[in-house]
Amino acid sequence: MPSTVKPAYYCLDAGSLPDELYKPTVPVSAWLSRCTTAGADGFPAGSLATLDPIPLLVLCERLVGIPLYMLLNVLPFAVPLLLLTGLFKLALLYYILPLFLLGLCFWAVFYSKGTATGEGVGHRAQQYIYTERNSTRYVSLKMVWPASLHFPTHEGKQLIFCAIPHGLAPLGIVGYAIWSKLFCDRLCRWTAAPVVLKIPLVGTLMKYCGYVPAATKEIEKVLDRGDESVGVVLDGIEGMFMSSRKQEVG
To answer: Average pLDDT for residues 176-183, to the nearest whole number?
Structure first.
């Protein structure tokens, strides 16, 4: 007989969502149908620590894309130091330029496959950009939430998502499309330090995905519009420098 126990927790293996379902036009019900559930005791120990197979193309793109993203974050500050030390030419020829060229090659490949971005226009579609989608597959992202947050409990409402820890790079939250679909089916605008949004290319990409400055007035503007949610990484830039091999800290 089927179990009559109501689920207390839900889990979506976001990293294993097939390409045909990872589109803004796909209804949230198609994602929810892939969820597994658990009772009040939660999921069995170790069951969430499994790794999904990752396509070779996705793996190679992330092995280039993640270092490229980190490089772009520090490049404006590193260039003066490299120039002063006379190392700029070496860095340009053997690290910076190769990463840029490889990054462009991968963009061309995903663009030709029609999976570079989501279908349609606006931030909701742009959050499906292949780089962030590939990160969810690279880390085998699994989303776990309590029944009190399960769709459609908060449909039509604005939500504020709070995440921690930030870590060196918050790869756990970059599946932006997931936050905008899974819980209340409305655009979720994540926040970032204002200085980060001014970094060339990096800031452009983040704004493309709907980011706003992590400032009270900017967050209030989003909430005042009444039709968008907000996401905040609580420990922010400070969390980039807090790490431990034994446990997550924030």
So the answer is: 94
DSSP string over 99-161: HHHHHHHHHHHHHHTT-SS-SSSSHHHHTT-HHHHHHHHHTT--EEEEGGG-TTTTTTS--EE
Distance CA 53, CA 43 (A): 21
The answer to whether the CB of 169 falls within 8 A of the CB of 66 is: yes
- pLDDT tens digits for range 21-51: 999 999 999 999 999 999 999 999 999 999 9
* Separation between Cα atoms, residue 228 and residue 149, nearest integer Å: 17
| Tokens at 148, concatenated | 């009190």
What gap in Å lies between CA 215 and CA 162, rounded to an integer?
A: 15
| pLDDT digit string, tens, across residues 58-88 | 999 999 999 999 999 999 999 999 999 999 9
